[in-house]
Amino acid sequence: MRFDYQGLKRGSSGDRAQDGALSLQGVQVLVVDDEEPIRKLVCLMLESGGCQARGASGGNEALAKLGDHGHELDAVILDLTMPEMNGVQVYQAMQNLSWQGPVVLLSGSPKYETLRQHPHLGHLPYVEKPFTRKELLTALEGALRSR
Questions:
Q1: Which of 20, 88, 106, 121 is the residue whose CA sits 20 to 30 A from 80?
Q2: Are residues 79 and 127 in contact, defined by beta-carbon separation less than 8 angstroms?
Q3: What is the C-alpha to C-alpha distance for residues 10 and 21, in angstroms, rounded to an integer?
Q4: pTM for this structure?
């Protein structure tokens, strides 16, 4: 069963998102980052916002998980700089798999620099490292709402 994006609501005092963020309770997210500490931190941030997060250490693992479990996932958070396959290559391969869910990009590079090289990614939410929990959750919420 897919997450109902229209069901996103303002967090109440009983929700886990206590900073006024929208509730992300039950959203299934795949986090793709080759750096284990960052991947784990992103998963923890997402889980603290009510998401269920799973990680992939690179493009090949991410594509395998999307192929096997894509129907269970609501969104992907994708690092752009990875050794085996960069995020742009992974994103293109995801489109070839007919992935229709939202994608949030992570990068240590400024957005303008990335978009200069890859203008076709300009429509995707972009979170620049280092980032806060609120920045990450806000980008995910925006990506889910735009679907």
A1: 20
A2: no
A3: 6
A4: 0.84
- The three-point CA angle 11-17-23 to 5° equals 50
Through-space distance between the first and last CA atoms of the chain, rounded to whole angstroms: 16
What lies within 8 Å, CB to CB, of 24 at 6+ separation is: 8, 17, 46, 49, 50, 51, 137, 140, 141, 144
Tell whether 35 is covered by a domain: yes
3-state secondary structure of 43: helix
Q: Residue 96: which domain range? A: 25-145
**Tokens standing for 79?**
């690092």
What letter does residue 10 receive in the DSSP assignment? B
53-88 pLDDT, tens digit per residue, is: 999 999 999 999 999 999 999 999 999 999 999 999
